[in-house]
Amino acid sequence: MADSYKVYWQPGCTSCLRAKEFLKENGIAFESINVREDVGAMDDLARLGAMSIPVITRGDEFAFAQEIRDLADFVGVEMTRKQLPVAELNQKIDLIMAAAQRFLPQIPADRLRVNLPGRERNCLDLAYHIFVIPTAFLDAARGGAVTFEHFERLPPPELDSVEKVIAYGQGVREDFAAWWRAGIVPGTVNTYYGVQPAQGVMERTAWHAAQHCRQLMEVVAQSGYAPDGPLGEAELAGLPLPDEIYDDEVPMNAKAANG
After folding, report:
1. Last residue of some domain: 16, 40, 75?
2. What contacts 161, CB < 8 A, 6 or more positions away?
3. What is the pLDDT of residues 201-242, one digit of tens each?
């Protein structure tokens, strides 16, 4: 009997959720392993040589599942969707960061530092993370690499308020705009999951940030407020976003978000 697929993931991880949804959409059964709850999960991955998530395994073989195309290749599914052009991705990345700047000050103070379900990450951390995602792409586009460490960063001590995180985000927006004006888009970039086409990583930057922005927007709505300039179908069209806002196994509802 052939080894079954296993997917290693954690709550609130955009690529993890998208990977699980992709497999379900294509009728591929898998064992779901939440590394935040399974104490031996990361050790199992380390033995295979995989030090980040999401990861899909089958026996001793594995693939990083950050890029859906890599996941599709591993499970033998043909990809047919087309990626948005980089000019459109650039516009979406900026409007997503602008949305995060609008949503963050709408979150009540008593919700701001409450951890999100299944994670040691609160809404202020999440907003900072949204701005780190484009920073990671810029680092790679300028000759560095997208690292797993980028996405594990927490706000430094000096970014201890909504206003300071918003200002940090404005700096990232301006840096991204300057990079785009320079007109130097590499063909490929280095990432912790291998050398990847820059367009694909830029697309992942857009939908990764957008998914977390949807989560901020959901907290605003759960708190009883109408999101300021909500992201809808027009703004998010063409991005391969998950169906769920947070996770299919760990719901993002008011009770869970309040702990």
Report:
1. 75
2. none
3. 999 999 999 999 999 999 999 999 999 999 999 999 999 999
